[in-house]
Automatic annotation (TrEMBL):
It comes from Bifidobacterium dolichotidis. Residues 81-250 form the IclR-ED domain. One of its GO terms (biological process) is negative regulation of DNA-templated transcription. Residues 21-80 form the HTH iclR-type domain. Keywords: DNA-binding, Transcription, Transcription regulation. This is IclR family transcriptional regulator.
């Protein structure tokens, strides 16, 4: 499909799909147009055949729900919400493989293990196993945590686009330099960042496209995990993340 230009021809097909819900059909026209690449409002009008006020209203509504974003030139582009929904759709496959891996991680490290997925401006724990006794960092499944602190938050933000990283760092306890180090080494470390006296180590879980869709973590008291937990535990957490990544890639290939 040709990239849109100011002189682009309408991409409205001769035979359109009519669902019976007019506003939905018009919204899909906007998304179909943006599939070809970034577009100004004028280009959306030309490509969809919609009236300018209608195209503008729908594009702004989609932007508020993050299905559409603006690039550095102010053009409309497809937004991050699609990636989030795709991650959620793959969650069942992830959870199916997660239990044994989290248990193995607990057995090998002696620390509670969790998997987090980003949900809007927070992160949600979608799977967890805990130590049976002793001090532990207890994070129940379904718990919503901040994206502003913690090693899992670092992982879930580190591979985002530049604008979203900029937004995420505004109130974060970690820095852009720290996220750069996370991308280079493939794991993140948090010491007293989310809660005083708590450490965590996290690594990415990726889908078949290489996109980071979740973070796998271990967490526990800093008194037990030590002053440099990353050096001690990162290889195990990264191996667990790679195993789950490989499982998702394999499941995607046989669908």
């Amino acid at each position: 499909m040709t990239k849109p230009t100011e002189t682009a021809q309408s991409i409205v097909p001769d035979s359109e799909i009519h669902s019976g819900v007019g506003v939905l059909d018009k919204t899909v026209k906007i998304l179909d147009a943006l599939e070809a690449g970034p577009a100004t409002l004028g280009q959306l009008v030309t490509m969809t055949g919609l009236a300018r006020p209608t195209a503008h209203r729908l594009a702004i509504a989609l932007e508020r729900h993050r299905f559409v974003l603006r690039d550095q030139h102010g053009r409309f582009v497809l937004g991050s919400r699609f990636a989030e929904l795709a991650a959620a759709a793959g969650e069942d496959r992830l959870l199916g493989a997660a239990g044994p891996i989290l248990q193995t991680l607990l057995d090998r490290t002696g620390e509670s293990a969790q998997i987090y997925r980003r949900q809007g401006e927070q992160r949600v724990c979608i799977a967890a196993v805990e130590r049976a006794s002793g001090l532990r960092d207890s994070i129940p499944v379904g718990a919503m945590l901040s994206m502003e602190a913690g090693s899992a938050a670092q992982i879930l933000l580190a591979w985002e686009d530049a604008e979203r990283i900029h937004q995420g760092l505004r109130h974060a306890k970690f820095t852009a330099t720290k996220l750069s180090a996370v991308r280079k080494r493939g794991w993140a470390e948090s010491i007293n960042e989310r809660d005083e006296g708590v450490c965590s180590i996290s690594a990415p879980i990726r889908n078949a496209s290489g996109q980071v869709i979740a973070a796998i973590s271990i967490s526990g008291p800093s008194g037990r995990m030590g002053t440099n937990p990353g050096r001690r535990y990162a290889p195990l957490v990264m191996a667990a993340g790679k195993y789950l990544t490989d499982a998702l890639v394999k499941a995607s290939a046989v669908r």
